[in-house]
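pinned: reference chain
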Amino acid sequence: FVPVALAKDSDMVCTQFDNAVVESAGLLKMDFLGLKTLTLIKDAIKIIKERHDIQLDADAFPIDDAKTYELFQRGETVGIFQYESPGMQKYMRELKPTVFADLIAMNALYRPGPLAYIPSFIKRKHGTEPISYDLEDMKEYLEETYGITVYQEQVMLLSQKIAGFTKGEADVLRKAMGKKQKDVLDKMKPKFVEQAASKGHDAKKLEKIWTDWEAFAQYAFNKSHSTCYAYVAYQTAYLKAHYPGEYMSAVLNHAGSIDKITFFMEECKRMGIKVLGPNINESLQGFSVNKNGEIRFGLGGLKGVGEAAIEAIIIERNKGGHFETMIDFIKRVLSRAVNKKSLESLAYSGTFDCFPEYHRAQYFNTGDGDRTNGMEKLIAYAQAIQSMTTGSTNTLFGDLPSAMQVPTPKLALCEEWTLTEKLDHEKDITGMFMSGHPLDHFNFELKHYAFTPINEYNEVKDNLISFPNNLGKNFKLAGLVTEVQHRVTKTGKNFGSFAIEDFTGKTDFILWSEDYVKFQNYLEVGQKVCINGSFRNRFNQPNVFEFKLQNMSLLETVKQMQTRTVELSLHPANLRPDMIDFFEKNIKANPGRTS
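pinned: its structure tokens
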């Protein structure tokens, strides 16, 4: 069929033709996809086995599980393979899928191009738009997708049924439509119309069907591919619906980037699952579920704590039981692997908070006229104990050193760190805020001042080509400034870039010339800001976009600056004397500047 050669790195025989050519030469071309999600499912099942002693089989999950479909209907699909974007969540809430076929279709439709058919698909499912078929014969294959051609397989089956195409011809048609091979389509059209008309179908309708197919068959998706994806998605949703803590632990362990971990931790909070910081008596290498069903941060996520140190700590904990006190811990684990650097990282991240005798600041405080800080005192103590223990085995009188007890160190008292200090250290070591979030003080503003969550903004930004109606629309964002760069162009002009994050995600901006001069004072890591602006074409090129900042201000000024009037609408039945008294009293006591 094709000329072959030996592969560079093995004795495998390879074709010397390009992959686009091998099919026309008569070979079958296959794509093999490796999915990380399969490992995630396996890991979630392993965590469930360890915690509940139940051995699940993902391939045996019932495909009609009500709890799983309810999760899709609520759009709670963060962490669900292929269904987690804000746009898909919105469509899931509108569609309210009830059968597996709905999931397959949505997977195929949610991509540039066919996205436009989703509103119609949803209306037809709920009976608010009539379902019609150009020919009654088409109903058999289009019924499950409510009369909309979604899959390549539907085009293939319909061409065989309506026009008597062979299976081979139907496949050539599918490929030509998908790859917009106009010459092939022009050759096939007369045959389609002729053969279908001879079966008694109306020629005008056949012309319409062909035109429709040419328009959207390039978007039609391979149903078998979509089915496999929807099935993997269903398995992840089943686990999330029935074993939320275990499933989200697995998701967090596979999240990869810090941004993703933060995003999934927010989802855990929304689900009512606590994500707790690291704990020396509970944490494993990765995220894990404790006996209360809460998720515990893993020691592997701490900067400066090596794998050897984590292994040593976990082995000692399994062997000798929980660490009772900080003294007990340091005596048992201090070694080459668990050294000063790793101990400091553990303290900064709050891993020792379970020992009430010291707070975080004491480990780093030196006290009056002292040269060594708390952690150094503890290390010196553990080293002295260890050297005496090894020393005692080498003497005639094994019990001699016990007479010379090493005094337990006393850590100097000091003020506890403020929340901001705690959070700064946590962010350094774990890459995120564990004890709280600098935006926690602004929950009211974030909820009530029409800010677009950053993950939704990012989705708009990534899909401007598909949804050009978002150009020129005003977006209002709020977040914490996490990265800033002040730079100079080759021609010597100043410009700046910065990133902001909220509870849902992170996004970047660039400020040029006048905008940079106007807003540069806000570019400081740790500032809480709100931003107004809109997308527009850049350099007047059709598919190049930029976000033009119109306004930037501090988040703390939003209440004063943006609340001009407050209007209350209520039902007359609720208008009772005690309510009127309540308002009158409070408005007089707190006049403010808002009408």
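why pinned: The chain has a mean pLDDT of 91. Strands lie at 4-6, 13-15, 275-276, 288-289, 295-296, 475-488, 494-501, 506-511, 528-537, 545-554.
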